[in-house]
Every structure is written in structure tokens, then in C-alpha cells.
Amino acid sequence: MAHLLGAEGISLSFPTKDVFDDVTVGLDEGDRIGVVGRNGDGKSTLLRILAGRQQPDAGRVTVRGGTRIGMLDQSDALPDDETVHHAVVGDRAEHEWAGDAKVRDVIRGLLGDLPWDARIGDLSGGQRRRVALAALLSRDWDVVFLDEPTNHLDIEGVAWLAEHLKGRWSRNQGGLVVVTHDRWFLDEISTDTWEVHDGVVEPFEGGYAAYVLQRVERDRMAAASEAKRQNLMRKELAWLRRGAPARTSKPKFRIDAANALIADVPPVRDRVALEQLATSRLGKDVVDLVDVSVSYPDAAGGAREILHDVTWRIAPGERTGILGVNGAGKSTLLGLVSGAVQPTAGRVKTGKTVRIAVLDQRLAELDEIAQDRVADVIGRQRAAYRTGSGAELTPGQLLERLGFSNAQLSTPVKDLSGGQKRRLQLLLILLDEPNVLILDEPTNDLDTDMLAAMEDLLDSWPGTLLVVSHDRYLIERVTDQQYAVRGGRMRHLPGGVDEYLALPSPVVEERPSRSPVVEERPAEPDASRDHPPALTGAERRTLEKEFAAVERRMGRVADAITAQHDAFAVADQSDYAELQRLQAELAALESESAELEERWLVLGERLEG
């Protein structure tokens, strides 16, 4: 594959931190890279350096001649007096952009609810972000860098963006590098993962699920001292293998490796024990919404109904995710449960022992303690927190599990980062021991490691959990059932998020100045593409034999790669000739493994078709 750009010997230091130390990475045609790492370790800085927006202290970035590079930065600023129309399509004639299927798809996917002639200065922060993303995607680039592109997108928007990026270039064309904390999105679009940590960029093959597997193997083989972190990632891997069927279409040797690693890892949650404990704390009555409706006055002097005749009897220990487009009424529904919203019809009955806590997006409860040090805040809390398994954790242990270091204990709350404030907010809520916990978009400002730590803590939380989030991975990870809010009503989703995304789009009120979406005539189906010719009996037997042979060979090559790693471990590290020979043999084995895997996938698809 042709080379697009690369960084060689990159180093960068800030006054208080060394960000990169002699980093070398490259991007080839067809690469789709997801970038993960702790907040503050340099993910966004890496993108800016590769895109030519920031210069390193040492090293260089080389770009193939003629390569067109586009980037969505977290601080992209559009002029306030510019219109949505001009920001997205510029001065291009209408027949030019309206005749481009890609541009129409971008407008439909990102801007369907925005007036085409609206001023950028009149839009919300999330709307401005979507316009900036649409402006980038409506143009042709050879390399696209995206820094947190899923921020301000709902689940439908994230799914659309994943499909758009997967189909934007042919398989061996274009380059994509994405920084995001949305782990489902990473799995959908990434063929490789870069982990930024401790001044280096470490490459891993595959998306987030494959990265987790390889990271566990790396930590185990290196006998890493981070035992707690390793155990957490093993639990994450266990959930990826057991709870997400869509992620199991991996080569068999990888599935076997994952199963061996998680053989002794229990399920992420003991649902029966948690429900029993929740019932003992709550009783049988939690919150019942019976024939509830909520209306608000509209500009015309009438009333706009948000929820209509909703009945929802919340059970002790229930773990429910709420899905819906922005403005569907999700927050109103949670407000009814918490008591912050009063119904205009129907009734809300709350159990006598219910104690509700809300983790919302505002962080308002931290304002009163903004000047206090973290250690002083924690020192005023109860001495122990009891998990669903019966174990007791001190506030200090909770802080450690949520990623706080000893140095941060002396930091005033006002000086914490957004992610640290979010984690402190969750910790204070848990120490107050509510028995109903409402999470309203809890993933803001958290990196993937901290999301895994928060999910691990919630796994042992013995109460009723209600979650609203656009983070599909979180919804699937911490809840056991999902409901959609559509047309003012609640709808149960036995098929989860996939069922929700398959629902027809809700009817939206016609707006005179909405963004133009040019209707496309459906393409005639291509029978040869969508339905390949059926296999004859002889052809199927031949393919099945080859499939089995390839699978056996993949297993042998995987064993040989493991043996080669063992040989590296015992080799004389001063014998450079021997090390070079081992490296050459390992490279040949890994190349063969990649070719076998590709053939295995092709054969599997042919047999399934």
C-alpha cells in the first residue's frame, strides 16, 4: 500500500511534561486508525502534529506530494456571521453540490434539523460542531483527521458517521485517524489502534475489542506491575466476548486466545444477587409512572405535549438504558422519576425508602466545594462504601479505582479537569448511598480507561440504574434492557440498540427553512452483488475443505508466533545477529498470519452467502 504521511523521531515537551519522546509512526493508503489513551497524554497533540498544525521540538513529518489533508479539531471556529449553507458548500453552485451524492448524504446525516440559512452565531455549541463536521466531510480529502467527532451526536448520528466513514473510500484508498472515547465507534471504523501513553505511540492490530485482547496479552507476557489495571481490562475483555455477539466474528484462533484468558473471569454482574440486595434496600416499590403526560406552553399560546400516557413501573435492581433523539423527552422522563418534573396528567408514585441521586451534565453540586481540596472533601464523607458483593471500600480506595493519584488529593476542586470533576461527582454520589441512580450523559470528558473503571464500579452497585447516553458501548455495557422514547411514548426494545436503529425515522414537523435534502431515487438492486450465485454441492465441499485447512494453518502459525516471542525472551540481547534473525522470522510469520486471516474471512463470507 502506498505511503501517505509519516512522523519520524518526533519529540515534544511542555514546561511540566514530556509529551512525546522519539516517536515514529506512519499512515498508508487504506489505514483506518483509532487513537486511545488517557486524557492529557497527547492524543490531540499527535493529530495536530501529523496534520501539520503544530510543530514538534524535534523530528519531522513527511507527506506524499499532492496529498490533501482535512482535520476536525476540537477548537474549530466558524465565523459567527457565516450561514450554515456557506460553511458547508461554500460558493459552489447548487447544481454542483446537489448533484453530489456524498454531499447530499452528509447534509441528510448531520444537518437534517438545521435551517439552511441560519447564522452560525445563532447555533448552539453542538450544532456548530455538526456544521464543522459536515463542512469537512462534504469535501474530498486523501487523509482525514477527526478529534472527538462523536461529541454532540446522538446514537443515530454516530451510526450514520460510522457508515459514512466506512464507505468514504474504497478499501485500499484514503487514510483516517480518529481520536474518540466512543468504543463502539472505534470498533466499527478502525482497522488498527494506536495507544498514546508515557511519551510513546504503541500500535495494535484491529479495533477496540482486538486492542483490549492484545493489551491483556501484552501485560500478561510482560508481567506488568499494574495488576489492578490488568484485571480491569480482563473484565472488559470478558464482557466483549460474552455480551456483544456482533464482535465475535473474529478468526477462531483469536476467539480461542480470548477464551483462554477469560476462562476464570466471572460474569461482569451477578444480576440475581444485585436484584436481591436492591430489593432488600428498596422494598418492592421504587417509582411507578402511571398514564403520565407532560405538556409545555408553546410560542403560539397552546401546549406542546412531550410525553403522552406513559406507564413505567420501575423495579428494584432494574438497569435500564433510555434511547431517543435529542428533544424526544428523555430528560423529561428522568425528571419525572427524580421529581424534578411534575406531570400534567397521570400520577407518579415513589416508594417510601427510595433515595434518588442524579449524575447530570452540569456539575452544579461541585460549586459549593470549588475552593476545597479533594482530600478535605473526601475526609468529610462516610468511612466506607459497601459494594454489592459485600466488600467495603474506603473513600481513598474509591478514588484510586477512579484514577486519582496521591498528588491530586491536594488539588482544589476548581482546578480539576473536566474528567476529574465528573469522577469526583460520581464518587460523592456513591458515598451518599442512594438506591436509585440516574446517569444523564455520564461519559463526557472521560477517556476509555476511565470509562472502563466507572463501568467496573457500577457493576457492583446494588440499586436501580437508569441511563441516558449517546454512548452505545456504555448503554450495552451497564444496562440489561433498553427503552426508546418516540412520539411521546416509551417502547421496549428486546433487540437493544440494533432494534432501535432499525426503527423507521419518526415523523418530524415540516419546517420552511430546513436544510435541503434532495430526494434520491432508489438504485436498482444489483442481484450479482447482493446475492452471489448459489454454490453447487461440489463447490461448497471444496470451499469447506479449504476453510478448515486455512483455520488449522492459522492455529499453527499463531502457536509459532507465540514460540517466537518466547525465543525473544530467552535470547541473548547483546547478540544482534540472532535478534535480527528472530525478528525476520517473526515478520514472516505475522505476514503469513495476515494473509491467512484475509483468506479465512473471504471463505467464510462465501460459505455464508
What does this structure look like?
With 609 residues, the chain is α/β, with parallel strands linked by helices. The protein folds into 3 domains: 3-234, P-loop containing nucleotide triphosphate hydrolases (Rossmann fold, 3-Layer(aba) Sandwich), CATH 3.40.50; 271-502, 3-Layer(aba) Sandwich (Rossmann fold); 537-608. The chain has 21 helices and 20 strands. The strands form 5 sheets. It has a 6-stranded mixed sheet with strand order 5-6-7-3-8-9, with helices on both faces. Strands 14-17-18-12-19-20 form a 6-stranded mixed sheet, with helices on both faces. Helix 4 (101-110) packs antiparallel against helix 6 and helix 20 packs antiparallel against helix 21. The longest helix has 34 residues, at 537-570. It is globular.
**Strand count:** 20
* CATH topology annotation of the largest domain: Rossmann fold
Strand order of the largest sheet: 5-6-7-3-8-9
* CATH domain class name of the largest domain: Alpha Beta
- Low-confidence blocks of residues: 507-513, 518-531
Mean pLDDT: 81
Q: State the end-to-end distance.
A: 29 Å
Beta content: 15-25%
Helix content: 40-55%
- The total tally of domains equals 3
Estimate the global geometry from the Cα principal axes.
globular
Q: How many H/I helical runs? A: 21
Structural class of the secondary elements?
Answer: alpha/beta
- Known CATH architecture of the largest domain: 3-Layer(aba) Sandwich
Give the CATH H-level superfamily of the largest domain.
P-loop containing nucleotide triphosphate hydrolases
Largest sheet properties: 6 strands, mixed
Q: What is Rg?
A: 26 Å
Keywords: ATP-binding, Coiled coil, Nucleotide-binding
Protein name: ATP-binding cassette domain-containing protein
Region (Disordered): 506-537
Domain ABC transporter: 5-223, 287-512
